Amino acid sequence: MDGGIDEGTLTERAARYWASVAYDDLPAEAVRLAKRFLIDTLAAGIAGARTPVVESTIRAVRAGFEGSGGSAVVWGRDLRLPIPQAALVNGTAAHALELGRTVAAVPGPIDVPQAQGSNELLRDGATALTSMADVLALCGLTSPIRRADLPDGTSERALWDALAHGSANLDTLCTRASLPAHEGMAAMSVLEMHGLVECALSGEVRRI
Question: Domain containing 81: what range?
Fold first, then answer.
């Protein structure tokens, strides 16, 4: 679909914006953390590659598909599987030992089957994640900034002030703040990362 970055649905605008972002446009801290988490996950996956739970997962996935192999590498083993099955095995291996990590989960409705796993983890003592501030605190990245730390004239301050008129979806907030969609999305991400706002499943953004 042709058109400017502010045309189309929010998803289409976000896709066009991020499609135009080059590696050099990414903040150095975001790149550093992404590399750190990638290396951490790969190392944990290799360490757990030959644990009993991974062995049983491999047997299960092999029993669930026809054929002798696939194109995706299974970490720490001389084995290839179809991409979905390899992702399951590698994900299991990455968590097989946990290596002293804190287990955290997002609580969900008790009558929704998809939330059963996370709710069971919370029942067994996992740390509850109820906001972006909780995620940041768990990662030890930063403490939430205060409203007074948002300088006048910035997109973040404009979006924050727009929320004074009540919660709304991002399209409405961008209209209130007179912000282009891509600036509004970036500003909302900053506010959310610092624990000042949260976005509901409905798409409504509200102050915390």
Answer: 26-101
